[in-house]
Amino acid sequence: QQQVKQSPQSLIVQKGGISIINCAYENTAFDYFPWYQQFPGKGPALLIAIRPDVSEKKEGRFTISFNKSAKQFSLHIMDSQPGDSATYFCAAANFNKFYFGSGTKLNVKP
Amino acid sequence: GAVVSQHPSWVICKSGTSVKIECRSLDFQATTMFWYRQFPKQSLMLMATSNEGSKATYEQGVEKDKFLINHASLTLSTLTVTSAHPEDSSFYICSATLEAPDTQYFGPGTRLTVL
């Protein structure tokens, strides 16, 4: 059973555009929702994270929107750059147990 | 801060041999370390959770006798793939947590290829 569903599988965005990646979860016990960025051949790097007591968190060009009632959260990358091209994973966690989404491969065209 | 290293970054071995992968937290003491496996173009699958000085907790379907985990100190955990076979070829990634729960920092990964 997949705990976290992520979409789309791949995404192509023009430079300067907005990249949006969505995730949904079922287990209401999850209390930590991070996003990770992974480049080929590298380990994931923590990008931004949110807890369910807030609906939005912004750090630079990256924003997480969180809808507790819908059990959904999304990552918005504003002013997307070619350097943002990577695979992005959402995750949901509780008591240090992480469940990862299937990943979204983002390609930002120059 | 919060840097996690892995060694080696890649390894090629013959079928039937054992391979040890090290995971170190360089600038912090990690109460808990995790080991993940990632197949090409797929997500991370948790293999086991290890706490310093205690036995690792393995996820369902992961053979504990095949994937030996030792967490000897607060900065070092090792994963040994015993009697490796080609189907064990994968990208193995460790992560470590600080005292604050839920924040996992990942290592750069180790690419294992078993011939």
How are the elements arranged and paired?
The complex is a heterodimer of chains A (110) and B (115).
Chain A: E1 4-7, E2 10-14, E3 19-25, E4 33-38, E5 45-50, E6 56-59, E7 62-67, E8 72-77, E9 86-94, E10 97-100, E11 104-109
Parallel strand pairs in A: 2-11
Antiparallel strand pairs in A: 1-3, 3-8, 4-5, 4-9, 6-7, 7-8, 9-10, 9-11
Chain B: E1 4-7, E2 10-13, E3 19-25, E4 32-38, E5 44-51, E6 57-58, E7 67-73, E8 76-81, E9 90-97, E10 104-106, E11 110-114
Parallel strand pairs in B: 2-11
Antiparallel strand pairs in B: 1-3, 3-8, 4-5, 4-9, 5-6, 7-8, 9-10, 9-11
Overall spatial form of chain A: globular
* Beginning-to-end CA distance, first to last residue of chain A: 38 Å
Uncertain spans of chain B: none
The main sheet of chain B comes to: 7 strands, mixed
What's the helix count of chain B?
0
Any overview of this molecule?
The complex is a heterodimer of chains A (110) and B (115). With 110 residues, chain A is an all-beta fold. Helices cover 0% and strands 57% of the residues of chain A. Chain A has no helices and eleven strands. In chain A, strands 2, 4, 5, 9, 10 and 11 form a six-stranded mixed beta sheet that branches. In chain A, strand 4 and strand 5 form a beta hairpin. Chain A is globular and about 40 Å long. With 115 residues, chain B is mainly β. Chain B is built from no helices and eleven strands. In chain B, strands 2, 4, 5, 6, 9, 10 and 11 form a seven-stranded mixed beta sheet that branches. In chain B, a hairpin with a 2-residue loop joins strand 7 and strand 8. The model of chain B has no long low-confidence stretch (mean pLDDT 90). Chains A and B meet through strand 5 and strand 10 of A and strand 5, strand 9 and strand 10 of B.
Give a brief rundown of this model:
The complex is a heterodimer of chains A (110) and B (115). Chain A has 110 residues and is mainly β.
